[in-house]
User: What shape does this take?
Amino acid sequence: RLAGIDAVVNAVGVLRDTTLTLAFAVGGKVSGSAGCNNFMGTYQASGPSLTFGPAAATRKMCAQEGVMEQEQQFLRALETVATVSQEGDRLELRRADGALAVSLAREPAR
Assistant: This one.
């Protein structure tokens, strides 16, 4: 069950002073921060299967070098997700070939 989970990308290589997040909501809605711009979209989950629909993002120009590229890579990675696994506070989103697409850490409940 993903609804109600808020998580932060904890991968090596995330640019300093940026935070990439995912918030899974009831009804198959997902939103978050791609580092500078916010995004929203949909997801479908059934057991270990997880897929994301196309994301819509705000269109702020981000001054920090590399942020726009990081955002595009993150949103593209979400489109490749096929499965999810949860272990403790960790979520791993993997592609159909088993390769890691996105690694996240659950945020503490607010």
Q: What stands out?
A: The helical segments are 67-79. The first helix runs from residue 67 to 79. The chain has a mean pLDDT of 92.
